[in-house]
Specification:
The protein has about 240 residues and is α/β, with parallel strands linked by helices. It is about 35% helix and about 20% strand. The strands form three sheets. The chain has a five-stranded parallel beta sheet with strand order 2-1-3-4-5, sandwiched between helices. Helix 1 runs parallel beside helix 7. The two termini are about 25 Å apart. Bound molecules: flavin mononucleotide (FMN). Flavin mononucleotide (FMN) binds next to helix 1.
Length: about 240
């Protein structure tokens, strides 16, 4: 299975960069694949052109999307999970990631006729300078979650998870104290990203009986099928 990782941080000298690397290690260690969109490294254009704005504002599903937008949409449709990794900037994602949504979530792709596939999972790993206590006290955590899952991902992913690595300001002791534990969590999230989807489809160890039988059928309602599954191989 394949994860699309949309990563957005202006500096490699950051904790968020370590989260990205730990998560990627987890994904590859579990035998899965990933595609990385590193928005700053790609210098992804974030501001909509007037043409793009008028296309979406007038609900025109025209065939003239920009090449960089089409490339991102292809990555989304090739993925079984979308993972966003970013630092919180003013209770939002950095402008570059917000702009990615403005342009890539275009009319006819993310809404309207919706050519977008629905990936199994939408996962957010974000780092925050504030402590969880402070983010909760002012309702900021809830609003971050609402904007992403109540709007941008709404109805566009089958399951969702929002992880905040809080208190990661360079001024707080918590940053150094929680560093290794947070990276372990990021690694685990990568390793287990597709584990629940695989479990959901497994018939291993289950028993079935026939619900219907043809007159010429060779089984009766006393026949019990014992199923075994290893990966995608099923026998009974
Ligand atoms: C422009 C800017 C705005 C920020 N706004 C917030 C914020 O609203 N809430 C918060 O908890 N942290 C905020 N932060 C702190 C970042 O989230 C923090 O730099 C990051 O989580 C620490 O990880 P890093 O080493 O990867 O940058 C802001 C940082 C910057 C540079």
């Amino acid at each position: 299975m394949k994860a699309l990782i949309v990563y957005c941080h202006p500096s490699e000298d950051s904790f968020t960069r370590h989260v990205r690397d730990a998560f990627i290690r987890g994904v590859t260690d579990s035998g899965n694949e990933y595609i990385l969109s590193d928005l700053y490294a790609m210098d992804f254009r974030t501001d909509m052109s007037e043409k793009e704005y008028l296309r979406d504002a007038n609900y025109r599903d025209t065939n003239d999307l920009a090449g960089d937008v089409l490339a991102e949409q292809e990555k989304v449709n090739a993925a079984d999970a979308i993972v966003l990794i970013y630092p919180v900037f003013w209770t939002e994602a950095p402008a570059k990631l917000v702009g990615w949504f403005d342009r890539v979530w275009s009319y006819g792709f993310a809404y309207g006729r919706k050519r977008m596939k629905t990936p199994d999972k939408g996962l957010i790993l974000c780092t925050a300078g504030n402590t969880r206590e402070r983010l909760e006290k002012f309702g900021l955590l809830e609003s971050m979650n609402k904007v992403m899952f109540g709007d941008r991902f709404f109805g566009r992913v089958k399951s969702r998870e929002f992880i905040v690595f809080d208190g990661m300001s360079r001024e707080l002791e918590q940053r150094g104290k929680n560093w290794d534990m947070n990276l372990e969590t990021a690694y685990k999230k990568g390793k287990e990203l597709f584990a629940s989807a695989e479990k959901a489809f497994s018939v291993d160890g289950r028993f079935f009986i026939a619900a219907e039988n043809a007159a010429s059928g060779e089984v009766s309602d006393e026949t019990v099928f014992s199923y075994h599954q290893t990966g995608n191989v099923i026998c009974a």
